[in-house]
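QA checklist item 7 of 12: single-chain prediction sanity check.
[x] sequence parsed
[x] length recorded as 255
[x] structure emitted
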Amino acid sequence: MRSWPTAARWTATTKNKPDVLPTVTHANAGGTSALHLPRERLRDVPVFAASANLRPRAAISQDDSRRTRHPRGMTNAAAVMTQRRFSASYCERATLTDGTSVELRPIRPADAPLLQAGLRQLSERTRYLRFHAPRGEFSPDELRLLTDVDGETHFALAAFTLQSQRLVAVGRFIRSSAAEAAAELALVVGDALQGKGLGRLLLSRLREAALEREVTRFTGTVLDENRPMRALLRKLGGHVGLASRGVCDIELALA
């Protein structure tokens, strides 16, 4: 059965185990609060890889957003976005199980050099699992596509170490239009922080952001040899198809 932890359930299930659990702090417009995340039996996997050829699509239009009344001068899309937790102002800090402090926030165009540096720090194995092939550096066009996102058809969260401000993980989902209920998902965690709760946290936050945008399922592909990822998907109720040339199609319902 699918088990997506919520903040309330996290607090209830980790009440007596604060010494082994990552702690998360929300620092958003609504104030600051802390909660604990459960330690999963499955290790964080380095990759939740969707198509290696993901590309952002057209930006949101007023016709794509909900048809509700808003203050004069504010478009439907703008009004909906101002009410979201996972807007451009979203920021969250977490202490991982090894004591590393990280900050989660939406990726920005100015993060392009940090994203390139993060790619350089990935092992060949992690790069292969993420991109399904050997991978060199990002081109300038790729960096622009991966960091200059609209937050609607292409949403991306990055994790940075607080001490050195290194980009150590990034997760994103991309859909063809703001009216599309399915989105392709990709997630990668740097080798040094795999198995410490960061991948699970990013995946959970991407789910929350997707539901805010009326995305109801994630799709993508994962290498058949990536057994930990396939096991995690099945644990969450996802469907992992039969491998074709070493690649499995996946689908994960979010609600």
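[x] summary fact logged: The longest strand covers residues 154-161.
[ ] second reviewer sign-off
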